[in-house]
Amino acid sequence: MSDFSERLLTEPRRRKGERLQPFTIVLAPLAAILFQVYVPRFFPFLAYLELPLLVTLHYSLRRRDPLPAVFYGCAVGLIQDSLSHFPLGMYGIVKTLVAYFAASVSQRFEVEHPVVTFTLSFFFYFFHQFFYWVLARALLGENIHFDPQQTLLYGLLNAVVALPLFHVFDRLKEVG
Question: N or C: which end of the chain has fewer CB within 10 A?
Answer without folding.
Answer: N
